[in-house]
Each structure stands twice: as C-alpha cells, then as structure tokens.
Design goal:
By secondary structure, the protein is an alpha/beta fold. Helix content is 41%, strand content 13%. The longest helix has 24 residues, at 58-81. The two termini are 27 Å apart. Bound molecules: pyridoxal-5'-phosphate. Residues 110-112, 138, 190, 193-194, 219, 221-222, 242, 254 line the site of pyridoxal-5'-phosphate (PLP).
Length: 413
C-alpha cells in the first residue's frame, strides 16, 4: 500500500463555521473539507480508528514543533525559569474548558496515569468491602480495581451492561448490582467506553451510587472533545481524562480531577511530602513533557474555533452515515444505540454473530487488507468481542459509504 503523507495546507483560511445550529453545521461539506485539510492524513488506508489517539491538526503540530525546539534550545533555563507559569496557564485553560477550577486539576501523561492514581490511592475501601465495575470498563482500570481490592482484602463485584443497552436498562442494572452488593464502597464508571462506544449515563448512575454512600471514579478518557463536556455535570468527585484523544494535543497529556474538598479521600502519591492541600501531592509525575503541556492551549484554541458542539454534531453525522445503513444489512449487529444520550462518534458492531477474539481480529484485518479501511477489534464485552469504528474530522460521508459497501460484501455468506 502507498504510504505517502499529503502535503501541509495553508492554515490561514478561517475555520470559523458559518452561524447556525450544530446540526446544520454538521452537514456543511465545504466547511468540513476545510477542516479536514488541517489534518495531514496518510493515504495508506481510510482511517476509522481515531479512538486510539487523535491526530494533531496541522497548526497544532506546527506549534508543538516550535515548543520542542524552544525547550531543547533553552533547556534547563527554560524549565527552571519559564515553564511554571506556562504550565499554570495551560492548566487554567484546561480547567476553564472543563468547567472546573484549576486547583482541582493536575496534568498527567494520560488517562491511565490519572486513573491509576485515583484508584490506587483511594482510601475508603477496607477488608470486607466491595469494589465494583462493569464489563465495558477499560481493561487496565479493571485490573487497578482488582489490585486495590486484593491489597485491602475487599471483594470485586462486576456487572454486565445489557445488550441492547437502553438508558433505562443500564440504570436498572446498576441499581440491581448496588442492591446485590450492599458493602460496595467504590465504583469505576466509564463515561464513553472504548469497546462499543456507548456513552454511559454517568450523572444518573453517580446519583444512585452517592445515595448509597458509594464513591465513583469516572473514566472520561474518551469524553473531552468528543462530546460537549463540563466535568461538574458528571456528578463525580474523581475523574481521569486525557487530551490526546479528542482534544488533539500531542500524545502524552492527560489530567486528574479531584473535586474541591475531596483530596482527603486519596493517599499521597508514594509518600509525596508536598502540601497536603495540593492536588500535586496526589499525582507526582516527575519531569514533565514540557512541549506537550505547552501545546495544550494551541490544541484548545483549534477545538474552540470549530466549537465542540459543532464537532460533536459532525462526528455523530459521520457515525450515523454508516450506522443507519449498516443496521439494514442482514448479519450486521450494531451494538451502540441511537439514543442521543448514549452515543457520540464511536460505535461497535458484530458480523454474522461472531463473538470470538480471533473472528473479530480477522474482520478488522479483512476490512484493512481487502477494503483499505482501518478499524480495530475490541474484547472484554460480556456479549462477545466486536469491531469498533471511530470516525474523525478528516473522515467524510464517502468513507462511511465505503465501510457500508465493505460490510455488505463481508456480511453476505
Ligand atoms: C476508556 C479508556 N480509559 C482509559 C484509557 C487510557 O487512556 P490513556 O491512553 O490516556 O492512558 C483509554 C485509552 O484508550 C480508554 O479508551
């Protein structure tokens, strides 16, 4: 396959969309061509696997290069004399975008580091207590919950998100699980899961949990920039995010959020002797990737120009462009509901009832090898494995059509 990279395009053209509701902006193909041109996408395949990490747009990449150059040139003089206020400003901007105060956030290298700190340092689980998570939560976070339970002599309760999922049956399943495990102290809850793309009704589940005295750690790795997001709306006190998926910052930037007044629920990071009242004492990353943090405001600026509601509407439009047709193909089972409360860009599907790891890896492999469409197989779902499709702003309705045509061929036995 060819492996060229399209040439950078001038970025001076205004990326501000014409005034209109996000649903109108979502279908303005001329506008989205302009946006797509900001992404220097390889033509090796049609990439519909933006769920791993989000490509930097050309202006963000250029800024990142300039920041790397500066850090390298000015070296420790930069790090010791200049970086701190730049980092504080990047944190302020991030907090502002998320609707929280800067003191409630600390930068991490990704959602994993933030969530491992939250889970691993959570104090409120003791011998005989229960910790809980669902099949659709991220595998590595499930492992962290298992490890916490093992260290504290607690038990692990799991639940399976129903298929097909509805707003009501998800809530009912969490209620049932809480009733069945009255000693539950801590719940891991993913906002948008990485397996099927289902957006879980976090606010409603968190309210159920809090009413029972259960703390909730929210995995929002896929939320910031995929859908409009204000962290207080999730209703949780502990949240892990990253900025390298849907905000399009360089790979290696995330953040840990702890609601004001809840730091006491977390041990210090590895005996950190910084201020007990500072969130920095709960996540100590050591020497930071300076250039990554410096690029955060550039990435936020790029997102703000488009507008997250417009971006979310476009992503949903691209998702619907393949899902609405795929649902009618005999043999294709779309796993992610159309309910606006439960879906963003990501959607999983199964083909001809195949649920094994091998079969789904083969489906993703054939989509790539035979049809030039890059997706990924996902595991850990109680109902069986699936293939995940994640469009991004560089994708087009024609890409969605290409996927539908491939699924028609592959579904036919
Ligand atoms: C749901 C979910 N949680 C956590 C992570 C880990 O994120 P990060 O790469 O920022 O460590 C991912 C990454 O794919 C994810 O999808």
């Amino acid at each position: 396959m060819p492996r060229s990279v399209s040439a950078a395009v001038p970025t001076s053209a205004s990326l501000t969309p014409r005034p209109g509701a996000p649903s109108e902006v979502a279908t303005d193909e001329a506008y989205w061509r302009l946006v797509a041109a900001q992404y220097r996408v390889t033509d090796a395949a049609t990439n519909m696997e933006a769920g791993y990490f989000g490509m930097m747009a050309a202006p963000v990449l250029a800024a990142h290069h300039a920041h790397i150059d500066r850090v390298n040139r000015e070296s420790s003089m930069f790090a010791r004399r200049e970086f701190t206020p730049i980092m504080f400003e990047a944190r302020r901007r991030t907090a502002e975008a998320l609707g929280v105060s800067a003191e409630e956030l600390v930068f991490s290298r990704g959602a994993t580091e933030a969530l491992q700190a939250l889970i691993g340092q959570y104090k409120g689980v003791n011998a005989g207590d229960t910790v809980m998570y669902a099949d659709l939560d991220y595998n590595a976070m499930q492992w962290a919950m298992d490890a916490l339970a093992a260290r504290r002599g607690a038990t692990v309760a799991t639940l399976n998100i129903p298929e097909p999922a509805t707003y009501e049956n998800i809530l009912a399943e969490y209620s049932r699980a809480f009733d069945a495990h009255p000693r539950t102290k801590l719940l891991l809850l993913t906002h948008c899961n990485n397996k099927t793309g289902l957006i879980h009704p976090v606010r409603a589940i968190t309210e159920l949990a809090k009413a029972r005295g259960i703390d909730v750690i929210v995995d929002a790795a896929h939320s910031f920039g995929q859908v409009p997001l204000a962290l207080p709306d999730l209703g949780a006190d502990f949240i892990g995010i990253n900025l390298h998926k849907w905000i399009g910052a360089p790979v290696g930037v995330g953040a840990m959020y702890v609601r004001a007044g809840r730091l006491d629920a977390l041990e210090r990071a590895h005996g950190d002797k910084g201020s007990e009242q500072s969130i920095n004492s709960r996540l100590h990353t050591g020497t930071m990737n300076f250039a990554n943090i410096m690029t955060v405001p550039d990435a936020l600026d790029f997102q703000a120009t488009i507008g997250i509601p417009n971006k979310a509407a476009r992503l949903r439009y691209l998702r619907d462009a393949w899902v609405n047709k795929a649902r009618d193909i005999p043999g294709v089972e779309v796993l992610t509901p159309d309910d606006d409360r439960l879906v963003g860009a990501i959607t999983g599907f199964r083909l001809n009832g195949q649920t094994s790891r091998e079969a789904n890896a083969a489906i993703a492999g054939r989509l790539y090898d035979q049809f030039g469409i890059f997706t990924v197989a996902r595991n850990g779902i109680a109902g069986g494995d699936c293939v995940r499709v994640t469009p991004m702003l560089y994708n087009t309705p024609a890409d969605a059509e290409k996927l539908v045509s491939a699924l028609r061929v592959m579904a036919a036995r």
